[in-house]
Protein: M28 family metallopeptidase
Organism: Paradesertivirga mongoliensis
Amino acid sequence: MRIFFLVFFSTVFGNAFTQDLAFSRKIIDTLTSPPYWGRGYTNEGATKTAQFLKAQLESYGLKPLNQQSYLQEFYLSVNTFPGKMEVSLNGIALVPGGDFIVSPDSRGIKESCKLFQKDSLNFVNDENRIVLTIKDKLTWSVAQQTSENTQILVNRSAIQSLPQKIKLNVENRFIKSFKAFNVAGMVRGTAVPDSMIVITAHYDHLGGMGADTYFPGANDNASGIALLLNLARHYAAKPPRYSVVFICFGAEEAGLLGSLHFSQNPLIDLKKIRFLINTDLAGTGQEGITVVNGSVYTREFELLNRINSEGKYLPKVNTRGKAANSDHYWFTEKGVPSFFIYTMGGIKAYHDIYDRASTLPLTEHEDLIRLLIKFNSALMSNH
């Protein structure tokens, strides 16, 4: 009989987390699909994503933070590339995203001209303010301004001969005031509702480069959003002692702007936050996790590490110090105790077109969910 119950509970809880993994895969598949267009600033990618997340939080029964709205709007400037994205080098057409990317602050240009070698990696046409740079890996980002130049970054593997002639048809659009959103909701605590655990993740990515190429952003950060939504479902079904707040930030890739806006215009009392956990790059884990601020909040890090050791969840929990590398940063600056947790190992795709749902292993995704639930429970029991 004892063996029967052990098998029964193992099967039930194992299936529960299998469902969590299936749910995460569905969320990641959705957010990396063409309709959301890289969750950026063309084709309404970021706006559609915010509406999708609003609907998710509402469907779980979370309460909105912003009076009757789950959305907190803010504005930013951004350079975008919604149209033509054509580059030929020495008469050979290059493939956007794979063979080349445009520097995110580039101006648009339509031109055909010669290139002159500046050094082993850079070829220029000063008259037309064109720079071609050879790279071993193409990594894109987001710019809030437009340069006077057009820079084309070309994958070394696409270079068949010395760059001598280039033909460009690149369209940019600078948006001075783009409306973006943070998406936030709360599960009210059953015993100490004025104390809060806050779970955050950014939903934006790089968006599209031209009319035919977008950056899926599976690991960065559809994986973190999937983890956040899994926790939102969990706590909505089983409200804990403390209130749990969930915030999906916009415009992280543009400079942590969504979290900056929230920290300056908080919808909750920041002093009542017991702890904030920011999750980004939650899709691998073969080499464990790294905890930014682990060496700052040593008591909480020792607690997290002990729980991980006892539960044998992740192969390793690494610690590092303070860093302005994700949305936890502005809260740390406001005195809110915070961790930024990201997984290590596995695929190396990052800020490129290869960060896809189909190749994201989610190796330790379930165990990370388990670990965070246990960690939050321990934080709440110490009131």
